[in-house]
Amino acid sequence: MSRHEGKAAAEMTEKPRKPEAAVLEASTQRWMLAGLVLMGLLVLAFPLFRFYEPARRADARLLQEQYQADQGAEVFATNCESCHGVGGSGGLAPALGARDFLETADDAQITALIAHGVPGTEMVAYSLDYGGPLTSTQIRAVTSYLRSLEAEAAANPLWRTPLADSNLSGRDLFNMACSRCHGIDLAGVEDVAPGLGGGSEAAEDSDARLVRQVSEGGDGMPRFGGVLTPEQVEMVVAYLRQVQSGG
Question: pLDDT digit string (tens) for 39-57?
Fold first, then answer.
């Protein structure tokens, strides 16, 4: 058999080629099948998405709220703690960490109090828009911080006037009213107020002079006679004497 005849015989034995339309139809069917499989996977995945997505969003929201509360704690410590006490426990100003306050004031009210201040009181406006030092973001952060205290907040019916609590000791009164300037340990705060512990000038003063100084103020010290009762002033002086004597 010649070479030409062999080639002709091979061509006769080959399967006939599919028409172009048949090839296109087969390709289309393959793509349709792939699309149906993909759609089926999406249909199966959607319930899983609906199940897990709310939890994921809730976790993300909690993380954001915690971050904002942490930022607010720093702002509160710098700008508010000296009057409202550590953790909003109260002092010269209301106890903002008390459950009685947090349950009655919503976030919008707390934010407005911080931003606008309270006319007729020493609570000034803290918003930059009113001449204060805080941005709106910082004010919202403080609000978030105070709200984060609510879960474990203790009841305090005297939250508006925390120093009126008859159960406060001389140490409590000192920490709430005096420690912001004189230090928790009576060591003083540099460039703010002198120490009051043993060996200080205050240790050499008479009780009567200390009572007068606390009540009437002077030499850069505010008067506390309108905040503390005469009995409370004497309790503060008694506490100073106890610490000064090493007690």
Answer: 877 777 777 767 776 777 7
Q: Which residues does 163 contact at the CB level (< 8 Å), separation at least 6?
A: 90, 91, 92, 173, 176, 177, 227, 228, 232
Indicate the burial class of 123 (C-beta count within 10 angstroms; 0-12, 13-18, 19 or more): middle
Secondary structure of 130-190 in HEC code, one letter for each residue: HCCCECHHHHHHHHHHHHHCHHHCCCCCCCCCHHHCCCCCHHHHHHHHCHHHHCCCCCCEC
Domains in the chain, please, with CATH?
Answer: 67-152 (1.10.760.10), 166-244 (1.10.760.10)
Q: Place 185 in a pLDDT band, splitting at 50, 70 and 90.
A: confident
Which pLDDT tens digit goes with each residue over 145-159?
999 999 999 999 989
Distance CA 235, CA 247 (A): 15
pTM attached to this predicted model: 0.62
Those residues whose C-beta lies under 8 Å from the C-beta of residue 201, and which sit 6 or more positions away, are 194
